Amino acid sequence: MAQLTAFSYRSGNSYAHALDVRIKLILLMLVSLAVMDAGPTALGVMSLCLMILVRYLHLPLKSVCVELRYFLILLALVFIARSLSTAGDPLIVWKWLTISREGMKAGAVVVWRIMLVVLVGLTFVATTRPTEIKAAVEWFLKPVPLIPRARIGTMIGLVLRFIPLIFTQAGETLDAQRARAVEHRKNPYYRLTKFVIPFFRRTFETADKLAVAMEARCYSENRTNPQFSARRRDFMVLAVCAVFCCLIFLF
Amino acid sequence: MDTSRQLHMTVYAALFAALTAVGAYLAIPIGPVPIVLQNLFVLLTGLLLGSRWGLAAVGIYLLAGACGLPVFAGGMGGIGRLIGPTGGYLLGYLPAVYLIGLISEKSDQRTVFDVLAMLCGSIIVYACGVTWLKVVSGMSWSKTLALGMYPFLIGDALKIAVAVPIAKALRPLIQVPKSRATISREDNSQPVTRK
After folding, report:
1. What is the CATH number of domain B3-176?
2. Residue B141 and residue A220: Cα distance in Å, rounded?
3. pLDDT per residue as tens digits for the range A110-138
4. H or E segment and range at residue A93
5. A56 vs B: CB within 8 A
6. Nearest to residue B44, comparing CAs of B148, B168, B151, B157?
7. What angle, 0 to 180 degrees and rounded to 10, lies between the N-to-C axes of helices B87-106 and B38-66?
8. Which residue in A155, A168, A192, A219 has the most chain B C-beta atoms within 10 A of its own C-beta, making it the best mutation to test that interface?
9. How many whole angstroms separate alpha carbon B137 and alpha carbon B133?
10. B29-60, pLDDT tens digit by residue?
């Protein structure tokens, strides 16, 4: 798992890289809040902006999709669950299953939202060094007393790293099971245990390796954080985004 | 606790926060409160990491969610979720995980006590969640219970049943810091094999 993944920092000197990390973190929060409130029109506008940003940053969309394939399967499941469980005008009726028009719509919007948030997170992680994320979280926690700020910053950064990793691990474990012809086993209990235990084992071994690697590189909590400097254009970006999000909240 | 141990536990706590977030993605909406795998991971966090680090893991998870990272049910995030109708369940994870960790630490990790710990944890989650749901939504007690608790009980029993073998299989991998006596006794009885 040590190889370079799409969910890692890509060096560059684009505008998105130069933006103050604290501003970027606020933007991330604003956008993910706004997305949850947005209807199809606003989602369309946001997707367009994001697509332009992704093109501009030259993020490899293809390899991102390949890496997200297991996540896409999950999204499909979410879509199916939503369209089955939402009541409304029936579209397809098959035995006791009813797929309603409202359900399809609700499912599509939910999937679209999740997809957008993941893409926003991806652009954030791709343009921000982990140390900068940690430092920014620390900066925001400054007014809160009595908590280990540095450790919390590190842990938030680690959580961001782990989420895509867990999806990859789950997918690889599924592949390994399939290679061992698990489809021939009908017992769901057998299949579940043979998936869950190796999956957790692998994930923990990865985490263990990460901890050892950090230790080997003399990780310590009290290190000098990068300096922040917010310039005028940073605040302008923030203002534009804030206005846009307010528009979404209002309408 | 030496620094190496502490670093390992930090990474594990972050991993559990991430696992909880992943478990929250697949949310099946059946009313105001969705069915999620999230609480399975919260139970496991308590059992495997113990009280202190379990609390840290759940705290980080909630903080990440409050910051707007998409870690709550159905890929939602934001502070609005924490004070929204289902926020009580999320905040209830904190005392629940602490209690689970505490019981499993004190009881020398016997299966009966693990199950008991998880039962207590689930009760706390529901106590916080249902009360908050009632206060926010203003429904009657019977309706709140019908929407916010009864549909999940079978699922929770299943989750507890699944958590026991997982915790058994993973404990040797993690080795939560225990008192010195327990460690030396365990080292003699069952050496931990690693690849």
Report:
1. 1.10.1760.20
2. 51
3. 888 878 887 887 788 788 887 888 888 88
4. strand A90-94
5. no
6. B168
7. 120
8. A155
9. 6
10. 666 666 778 888 899 999 988 888 999 999 99
